Amino acid sequence: MGIVSSTRPALPQLAGGPFITDGGIETDLIFHGGFDLPHFAAFVLFDEPGGVDALHGYFRRYVLLARDHGVGVVLDTPTWRASSDWGELLGYSSERLTAVNRRAAALLEEFRSDGVDVVISGCVGPRGDGYEPEFCMTADQAEEYHAPQIQTFADTPADMVTALTLSYPEEAIGIVRAAVAAGIPVVISFTVETDGRLANGRPLLEAIAEVDCQTETAAEYFMINCAHPAHFADVLLAGGVELERIRGLRANASAKSHAELDESDELDEGDPTDLARRYQELSARLPQLTVLGGCCGTDHRHIAAVCEARSGSGSNDG
User: Fold this and answer.
1) Is 101:149 a contact under the CB 8 Å cutoff?
2) Domains of the chain (ranges, CATH numbers)
3) Residue 283, pLDDT score
4) CB 117: neighbour CB atoms within 10 A?
5) Are 97 and 83 in contact (CB under 8 A)?
6) What is the pLDDT of residue 67?
7) What is the DSSP string of 85-133?
8) DSSP run (H or E) holding 163
9) Rg (alpha carbons) of the chain, rounded to whole number
10) pLDDT, tens digit, for every residue of 252-266?
11) How far apart, in Å, are the Cα atoms of 236 and each of 19, 104, 113, 156, 190?
12) C-alpha to C-alpha distance for 207 and 185, rounded to whole angstroms
């Protein structure tokens, strides 16, 4: 449990009930929605004709899934690229980035009236390439870089911030520190290579331990995203005290490596049923995994399969 002091209520997913997330928003909107997302930035749709409607329709599918299956849902704002370096590449000033991050949180707030336990998460992405960062910041540099976006979310209806697709602990440490300073709960999600390690070869659990050590265990919990369960299942089943800190998974549909996915022009949608089965097997061994969703290549069909597998397992506790 984190140490953030905030007037926000405790995150409901920490109580042990099942929650889903959305899937791979960028790949879904590109390959199924036909949108052009430069630099994989979904937030540009707020300024594109039909973009807001597309975003609303995208998230609504997951809210309805949660309602139909009696689970909660964590919705991440479409702002993975809405930080200063990426914004500059896309022609966004700091003022426009602040506005778009606010609009993203407001969009998700609309779903609070749908009779579903909706957790709004301000999504923060890596400063560089999540697969292969061209440079690594110190924790102080990361805190300074990410603080404006995190502070913006702290001044919105967002319940928390989630940093997705991080590949080294120093950036995670800086993000946690920025969130603590802003008074908003934070979740850290690392991505791993096919061997279950970070891009620099660092063991995942070792990186989690370092983040906790350097931040006084301030993150609410950790996740893994943008990797297939075949890549990290052995790590999760090997044991270790840090495993208790991992509460969420957002896997890729494809079992391909990051390098292979970067070179592919076609979407590998994998097998939703197989992905759901793998989640079930991991959840049976690791009951703290209460947040399950998707990343690249996944869509509402994959998350529906996850919900159906859970229902079929006879697990109705919450």
Assistant:
1) yes
2) 15-312 (3.20.20.330)
3) 95
4) 17
5) yes
6) 96
7) HHHHHTT--HHHHHHHHHHHHHHHHGGGGGSS-EEEEEEE--SS-SSS-
8) strand 160-166
9) 18
10) 999 888 888 877 778
11) 19, 33, 36, 34, 13
12) 20
* In contact, 140 and 171? CB cutoff 8 Å: no
C-beta atoms surrounding 18 within 10 Å: 23
According to the model, what pLDDT value does residue 94 have? 97
- Residue 150 pLDDT more than 50? yes
Q: Is the dihedral of CA 224, 229, 230, 236 positive or negative?
A: positive
DSSP 2-37: -----SSPPPGGGGT--EEE---HHHHHHHTT----
- Residue 280's H or E segment, with its range, is helix 272-285
- Spatial separation of the C-alpha atoms in residues 44 and 90, rounded to whole Å: 8
* 85-122 pLDDT, tens digit each: 999 999 999 999 999 999 999 999 999 977 899 999 99
The structure tokens 């061994």 sit at 285
Which residue bears the tokens 């090997």? Answer: 238
Structure confidence at residue 132 as a pLDDT band (50, 70, 90): confident
Four-point Cα dihedral 287, 293, 295, 297, nearest 10: 120
Length, in residues, of the chain: 318
β-strand partners of 74? 21, 119
Strand-strand pairing, 19-21 and 291-294: parallel
